[in-house]
Design a protein that fits this description.
globular; alpha+beta; 131 residues; 19% helix; Immunoglobulin-like; 3 helices; 40% strand; 4-stranded antiparallel beta sheet
Length: 131
């Protein structure tokens, strides 16, 4: 019974992609579990090469070659993701196929994001991947 109770309140992070013409589009993170998640590690991987964690400096390296602005939300280790959190990590406003094709290619075929996290109550190690 104890294990069932602990699992019923664990965090449940998801990485997702959304592309919608005329709307904000990109890669997002959500926590649909009943427990906050404590981020313990993250990786950004481009074309099979690890760039680093999901920090400002790594994201800047990733997006440096794009000719348009990309909104970002970065995560450090020891970041807590509350229950109900849902936010884009990388996004463009008013997505346009012609203007943002390079961004589409990046998030759909070149980018991989890995996040490791724990429950604040349990210390179990979970992971979520976007590829």
């Amino acid at each position: 019974m104890w294990m069932y109770n602990r699992r019923s309140v664990q965090p449940l992070l998801a990485l997702w992609g959304k592309i919608s013409t005329g709307a904000t589009s990109g890669v997002g993170l959500s926590n649909s579990g009943l427990d906050p998640a404590k981020i313990t590690a993250s990786k950004l991987i481009l074309d099979g090469v690890e760039l680093g964690d999901l920090s400002r400096s790594t994201v800047d390296k990733l997006l440096g070659s794009l000719s348009f602005p990309v909104a970002t939300t970065t995560l450090g280790s020891q970041t807590f993701i509350e229950t109900g959190f849902e936010e884009f990590l990388l996004s463009v406003e008013s997505y346009d196929d012609a203007k943002h094709h390079e961004f589409y290619e990046l998030i759909e075929s070149r980018l991989r994001i890995e996040i490791q996290y724990d429950s604040i109550y349990g210390g179990e190690n979970f992971s979520v991947t976007y590829n």
